[in-house]
Specification:
Layout (H helix, E strand, L loop, with lengths): L1 H10 L1 E2 L5 E2 L1 H5 L4 H15 L6 E5 L4 H11 L3 E6 L9 E8 L4 E8 L8 E9 L3 H12 L3 E11 L4 H7 L4 E11 L2 E4 L4
Parallel strand pairs: 3-4, 3-7, 7-8, 8-9
Antiparallel strand pairs: 1-2, 4-6, 5-6, 9-10
Bound molecules: guanosine-5'-monophosphate (5GP).
Guanosine-5'-monophosphate binds next to strand 2, strand 7 and helix 5.
């Protein structure tokens, strides 16, 4: 999506070879107009695919996921990061390893908001190593729902997330694909 690529070039900060900061329009301050257009683009890609709910992981995925959910006319379910100790029969839980923080967390969804009749689209801000998306997929499958795909705003194409997901037969749709980062350098995959 040209609009997003231009915004990343104008305001994104490549902190290192691995980390892209987009705090001024996605992760800290949010640009609602851009978010709305990105949500529409995602919805357009998945229109007619029988999606019943969108799922995202709190908290950075909520803004794009909400916009996509509104455009598709389906509810948004937020997968919550919660402590593991609670043993509750009405919850599905799985452990996810966080790439940016180098920590693990428990991902949780209430059985009230997902069922075997659901066909779910996962939306997040970034795809890097695919740990978050893989955790979300595992959780959704525990509830016997099916996965329509994983859609992200920014894919770091030099990291193995897409490959990992596609190996499992998951459709991956990203709005911007970054091919290289370095201090002050941001390059995109050239799509033909
Ligand atoms: P993964 O699980 O695919 O390795 O990482 C995905 C999660 O890590 C995203 O939800 C995002 O919050 C965070 N993340 C990964 N790489 C970056 C990055 O370069 N910049 C920012 N802001 N977040 C990232």
């Amino acid at each position: 999506m040209k609009l997003l690529e231009d915004k990343i070039l104008a305001e994104g900060i490549a902190e290192s070879e691995n980390i892209l900061k987009v705090d001024s329009f996605i992760n800290h301050q949010v640009d609602p107009e851009l978010m709305k257009k990105m949500g529409k683009d995602i919805a357009e890609h998945y229109k007619g695919k029988g999606i019943t709910r969108i799922a995202t992981i709190e908290s950075s995925g909520i803004a794009p996921a909400l916009m996509a959910a509104e455009a598709l006319g389906v509810p948004l379910v937020i997968l919550k990061k919660q402590p593991s100790k609670i043993l509750n029969h009405d919850l599905y839980q799985t452990v996810v390893t966080s790439y940016t923080k180098g920590t693990s967390y428990e991902l949780t969804i209430s059985a009230k908001y997902i069922s075997e009749n659901d066909h779910i689209l996962i939306v997040d801000d970034f795809l890097a190593n695919g740990e978050a998306a893989t955790g979300a997929i595992r959780l959704i499958r525990k509830a016997h729902a099916t996965i329509a795909g994983v859609s992200v705003l920014i894919e770091k194409a030099f990291q193995p997330g897409r490959e990992k997901l596609e190996e499992q037969g998951i459709d991956v749709y990203s709005l911007a694909r970054v091919s290289r980062l370095d201090k002050g350098v941001i390059e995109f995959v050239k799509e033909d």
